[in-house]
Design brief:
The complex is a heterodimer of chains A (514) and B (252).
Chain A: E1 7-12, H1 15-23, E2 32-35, E3 44-47, H2 49-53, H3 62-68, E4 73-76, H4 79-94, E5 100-102, E6 114-119, H5 130-143, E7 149-153, H6 156-168, E8 175-177, H7 180-188, H8 199-207, H9 213-218, H10 221-228, H11 230-240, E9 255-266, H12 269-289, E10 292-303, E11 308-319, H13 322-335, E12 342-353, H14 369-383, E13 388-393, E14 402-405, H15 409-414, E15 431-445, E16 448-454, E17 458-472, E18 481-490, E19 495-501, E20 506-513
Parallel strand pairs in A: 2-4, 7-8
Antiparallel strand pairs in A: 1-6, 1-7, 2-3, 5-6, 9-12, 10-11, 10-12, 13-14, 15-16, 15-20, 16-17, 17-18, 18-19, 19-20
Helix pairs in contact in A: 1-4, 4-5, 10-11, 12-13, 13-14
Chain B: H1 6-12, H2 16-21, H3 25-36, H4 38-44, E1 53-54, H5 59-65, E2 69-70, E3 74-78, H6 85-98, E4 103-107, H7 114-119, E5 127-130, H8 135-147, E6 153-157, H9 171-184, E7 187-192, E8 203-214, E9 221-233, E10 241-247
Parallel strand pairs in B: 3-7, 3-8, 4-5, 4-6, 6-7
Antiparallel strand pairs in B: 1-2, 8-9, 9-10
Helix pairs in contact in B: 8-9
The chains are: A alpha+beta (514), B alpha/beta (252).
Chain lengths: 514, 252
């Protein structure tokens, strides 16, 4: 077991290109550039490897790049997509370690990279080796659409340098783990540029003929401080592993955002849902990698001409089912279409833990929590969240009052089985509620209803019992009720519960005996 | 392998105790079916036995059905209004939920009355009540619930209270529902005014209101007497009927 501190660095060297490929996987293998999209000077800010091989480079104007590479695909930069890709890399790190953080943005020539550090101490208890750990890390990054490299060493500085060397070397090696014994030698061979000294120091180091870390470490400290300044001393101390690094934080935030700026405004629902589907799919992949599920989604639409359209959708239980979430969002957008064309989309969720299952030896096996969550989510997507749940008897006197609560497995399991219990004899006379109640025209003779005409039944009232009066809610104008109920049998065979509403002064059928 | 090997002998030598309890081939087969469960029954094309039934709690009806409604099958309860379909379905629901099972009620007619169900003895917290907005959603909800293990009873109420539900006689739909019910061994009970599932239904009960009983003096609806006719059964003679008295619960 490794007792010393170990740090892994997961690095994406070309964030802008990777963010574009993540959102548009169909671009893989094609020559494309990401342009700034400025009105006056539209210049290339990132180019795919295929475009780079065709002599396209960053800083060129788009027209120049098109001239250099026929068939070049030009995409407009999206800060939202880049922000999302950056957070996705952190998700990949958090899938294997609770302690991880994004590295600070680097200056040129590493301005395009994004790196994340994660605590790899003690991972040999979970993985065969650090190489195995690093390859799993890369697989998780690939699962969320990012091609990365990974280095494992004793410090952030060493792991970062290692990862940068992997990213810049032409070989296909994408991971490397350095043991403490071989770390000094490996770091000594690194080009000094990989340590990202500031421009002034880099120029002075070049003037002195210092090109690799070994050259820097060979210089005496005093002379180094006198001739190259404190920054060079700090650089040498980091290269020797003498710098004290703060511990990696353990992020508690489970907020995940998937955002994108659209190249063209979308005014119709179908293409909008097409884009949303891709974003949801990527969000679900990130949640899956982190072992989380979503219970609520916040959809924020940036409207053409300014303005935002924010809406929140939710399910009673967390789920990772893409089909369910897509249906929920589709229902939401269909019922309340955006008031203008969309130019930007953001989907945010707070990751929730997925539920485990513990079966009971002595009770009937009910649905497993995972399967029940998926079923409830799909039923809510089909019918609406207010139409799925467990029925409850309302705690009030109004005869037609009822409640619906969530269908919870805990309540199902906690309630003891009563095989022979219950106060009701088998086959108790049941009623079917009419929602809404059916209006009825009643002919009354000597204060008693004798004939009924409604959409449900029509005919002579053969037998009648009642009235049974219920009043309540007198303290509020909206909630007050005064009802006279009758049980009636009509000549056509229907047995119904007839009601006279004293507030509305109308007859209606509330329920049918069935 | 020789016939005289110890292993062979151990398998072929009759065990006196076992001979007493499994005296006949039928008993042995019954024990084997019990051990291997319903999967074997499906594989051999056998009919489910009484142990794989969902009792209604009404002795006369359970006797008519040979123990109750079969698990893993599609059953129809049909009849006009006030014929007692809901009463029978709630009796079934009460029996099932009181034993600790979960059940689904797909309320295509939006007519489920929690007060009435509670009075009938249904453990409401074990009922997943779904109120689909249309017939199409009701059928899809039924499919989804039948795909989920752990709901041994699913009631699909397609009774059109005010004619809001269109009729569906689409055979593939019912065939699919019947197969899903067989897959998870759930009893699917369809309530309606008329039979819709056709050959996909394992059994169908047609109900007719026979008589109402009103108490003397203070006039009260006390009892609804139903006539239940076994209109279809794949494994039993049809045309037989029973009369069931459904009493008003005091709690109602």
């Amino acid at each position: 077991m490794t007792a010393s501190r170990r740090v892994a660095c997961l690095l994406v060297s070309d964030l802008v290109v990777q963010a574009e490929l993540r959102a548009h996987p169909e671009l893989l293998g094609h020559a494309f550039v990401v342009a700034s999209g400025d009105e006056g000077r539209d210049e290339v800010i990132a180019a795919s490897p295929e475009a780079t091989r065709a002599n396209v480079c960053t800083g060129q104007s788009v027209a120049h790049a098109r001239a250099a590479c026929s068939g070049l695909i030009v995409r407009t930069a999206s800060p939202a997509r880049e922000r999302t890709a950056r957070q996705s890399l952190l998700d990949a790190a958090l899938s294997l370690s609770p302690r991880a953080e994004l590295a600070e943005r680097s200056a040129a020539p590493f301005a395009a990279e994004v790196a994340v550090f994660l605590d790899a101490s003690g991972i040999d208890t979970l993985f065969e080796s650090e190489r195995h750990f690093a390859s799993t890390l890369l697989a998780h990054a690939e699962a969320i659409g990012l091609a990365a490299v990974a280095g494992v060493a004793s410090s952030r500085f060493a792991a970062h340098g290692l990862a940068r060397r992997l990213a810049t070397q032409p070989a296909d090696t994408t991971l490397q783990a350095l043991s403490p014994s071989e770390e000094a030698a490996a770091l000594a061979a690194l080009p000094i540029d990989l340590l990202a000294p500031d421009d002034a120091l880099a120029a002075r180091l070049t003037r002195f003929g210092i090109y690799c870390v070994r050259d820097l470490l060979a210089l005496p400290r005093t002379a180094l401080a006198q001739r190259l300044g404190s920054e060079a001393v700090r650089l040498a101390a980091r290269a020797r592993g003498e710098e004290i690094e703060p511990p990696l934080p353990e992020p508690r935030d489970r907020r995940l955002e998937e955002a994108s700026d659209l190249e063209h405004a979308i005014g119709q629902l179908e293409p909008l849902l097409f884009v949303v589907r891709g974003m949801l799919s990527r969000l679900v992949e990130r949640l899956e990698v982190r072992g989380l599920a979503a219970r609520h989604l916040d959809l924020e639409l940036e409207l053409e001409g300014g303005g935002r359209d924010a809406r929140r959708t939710g399910l009673s239980s967390p789920t990772l089912d893409l089909r369910v979430w897509l249906r929920v969002l589709a229902l939401e957008l269909e019922s309340n279409p955006p008031r203008a064309a969309i130019v930007g989309i953001s989907i945010v969720t707070e990751g929730s833990a997925q539920r485990g299952d513990q079966l009971d030896l002595f009770r009937p096996r009910g649905p497993s929590p995972g399967a029940l969550d998926r079923t409830l989510a799909e039923l809510e997507a089909l019918c609406g969240s207010d139409r799925v749940g467990a029925p409850r008897v309302a705690d009030e006197h109004r005869p037609d009052a009822y409640e619906r609560g969530p269908f919870e497995l805990a309540r199902v399991r906690d309630e003891p089985a009563r095989p022979d219990g219950g106060h009701a004899p088998p086959g108790s006379l049941a009623v079917r509620a009419l929602r809404p109640p059916a209006r009825a025209e009643i002919r009354v003779e000597a204060g008693t209803p004798v004939h009924i005409r409604s959409a449900i039944t029509r005919g002579r009232i053969v037998t009648i019992s009642g009235p049974w009066r219920t009043t309540g809610g007198w303290w509020s104008e909206e909630g007050r009720y005064a009802l006279d109920h009758y049980d009636i049998q009509v000549s056509d065979g229907i047995v119904a519960r007839l009601c006279f509403d004293w507030v509305e002064h109308s007859w209606r059928i509330d329920a049918l005996y069935d | 392998m020789g016939s005289g090997s110890p292993t062979r002998a151990a398998h072929t030598r009759p065990d006196p105790a076992a001979s007493r309890s499994l005296s006949s081939r039928a008993d042995r087969l019954q024990a084997l079916r019990h051990d291997l469960g319903s999967a074997l029954q499906q594989g051999l094309g056998m009919e489910p036995d009484a142990a794989a039934c969902c009792p209604t709690g009404l002795p006369e009806l359970d006797h008519l059905l040979g123990g109750g409604l079969p698990q893993g099958r599609l059953c129809e309860l049909v009849g006009p209004s006030s014929s007692g379909r809901t009463t029978l379905a709630l009796a079934l629901l009460a029996t099932k939920t009181r034993r600790g099972h979960c059940a689904g009620w797909i309320d295509g007619a939006d007519a489920f009355d929690p007060v009435s169900a509670d009075a009938a003895g249904v453990a409401l917290e074990r009922v997943l009540w779904v109120r689909p907005p249309s017939l199409r959603e009701a059928l899809r909800c039924a499919e989804r619930l039948l795909e989920t293990e752990g709901f041994p009873l699913v009631v699909l109420d397609l009774t059109a209270g005010q004619g809001s539900l269109a009729s569906t006689n689409d055979p593939p739909t019912w065939l699919r529902l019947a197969r899903l019910a067989a897959g998870t061994q759930s009893a699917l009970v369809v309530l309606g005014s008329e039979r819709r599932a056709g050959a996909s239904a394992h059994l169908a009960l047609e109900l007719q209101p026979a008589r109402t009983h009103w108490s003397e003096g203070l006039v009260l609806l006390e009892q609804l007497e139903l006539e239940v006719v076994l209109a279809r059964h794949r494994a039993a003679p049809t045309g037989r009927s029973v009369r069931i008295a459904t009493a008003r619960s005091r709690a109602a």
